[in-house]
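Re: duplicated header lines in exported structure tokens

Our pipeline writes sequence and tokens for each protein into one text file. With two proteins the header for the second block appears twice in some exports. Here is an export where it did not happen, for reference. First protein block:
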Amino acid sequence: MKQTRRLRAQAAVKPEPGGTGAGVSEDSPPALTSGRGGRMDSETGNGKDLVADAAGTPTTQELQADEDRFLSVTASLVKAVKAVDSLLCAAIGTRCNPQDFVRHFAGGKESFYLQATGCRKIRGFFGVYMRDRQITVTPEKDGHYTYEVYGVAGSEFFDRLMGTHTTGGTLIDVFGSRSSSDPFFSKNDRVPDQNDVKKAALSNFEARAINGLIGTQNLTRDDLKKFGINAELVTGVEHKEGSEGGGKPDLISEGQRKRLYAIGKQAGVADDLQKSLVQAYGFQTSAHISRAAYDELVTIVQGGSAAVSKAITAKLTPTQKTEAAAGEFDG
């Protein structure tokens, strides 16, 4: 289409045989016709530009074709969403059971998550792959240690659905971790086995990768009902004081906090702006960030300062937005 407009524009300014302009003889008076962009100036030669602009303006037929293509793409995306939903229901409904889920209850809110066992069962349906995995172990002050796993993950199913299978795929950053201070590793007064902690960190990484790609996090009872899973049979975990993470196992680790700010620094986000983002999400400091909100914050920070500022604004109350517009809100 662009080539068609360019040829039309060239034809509009092509000199006639024996002449000096498009249908204009050497004896013709200077053109004074106004066009798009202002009056035609015969002395500066801007007339040809104006003619070219006019000739390059999309026609009604071209605009209609553009709209038809947009509607076609939109319809394709809607079908793609339905295809993902259908596949997810089929995969979970046929392969998983209530024991593959866990119910979290914290702050008066209930949510369900697909555990590592369930994630492995449906991984093949979506062709989930993981790359560039790195494993580190960090000593803690109290003698414990934390295994952290970094990497990226993608899905062959989504790559083909979105047409990115030839450009490296649609990838997400993934982080998994486990600390030897988790009471699970010291049940019955046993000493935590380092291999167990490492395996748990790898399992956490895998589950977060699959959940993050497929969207099986923070589910509701209605979601489970759609999958054919009885929520009443799902094991529940209530977060109480006196367990991992200083009595708050639903909070991110120190390693995750450091990674969040490292990602922000790499994306050019100032520390103060990151702190404002954390506070906008209702956390006093980064030490209070919940595991449920962590992935969303990482995604925002990866988008740079503009994405962070937009996210902060979205969290403002109507009064704060008014004050911000007036220059009174200090963040």
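Second protein block, exported in the same file:
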Amino acid sequence: MPDLAEQDDRWPVGAPAQRAGLLPAPITAVDPKVLVVTGPSGVGKGTLIRTLRERVPGLELSVSATTRAPRPGEADGVDYHFLASPEFDERLAAGQFIEHAEYAGNRYGTLRSEIDRARGARALLLEIEVQGARQVREALPGAVQVFIAPPSDEALRTRLIGRGSDAPDQIERRLAVAREELEAREEFEHVIVNDRLEDAADELVELVATMCGE
């Protein structure tokens, strides 16, 4: 069974923000370098990123902003930047987001201040969904993007069922969204199939070394 990580309860809805005119002009030169790790929910993005950071020092992980309430044990500024909806809207109108989207009635996004926070790091990692990755492609043309894919639909289904936290209809909905997102893999220059964790992590480490000129 592939080692796939648990993801947040987020469902993509609505149009990309760029079409709504809510994203500012692209940033053409970025310090630090930015690696966007994307793919369907449940594919193992989180596990791969944790393994990558254990093996490669100096990598910063972007902290997303959200309007959802904190879960037990979550800390503001560590797990997420927890924002009330009015503050999220204000920051969005002020052009403070690189990307944003709505999932399951909650808003999520990456603040531009995360780039400032990570200055001096070897690279900044963004773990986001496909919709957000498309926005980052426009906002940060120099960012490297990698799509994490499951070895099969069945492997993804087994992982989602194994969580034990979703009802059957929720699992089917997740799989339906995942299938749509898998169709986007051809948009990405780099694709890693997360069949065996160590093999996928090796590929990710190599990609970081290449983008950092090492």
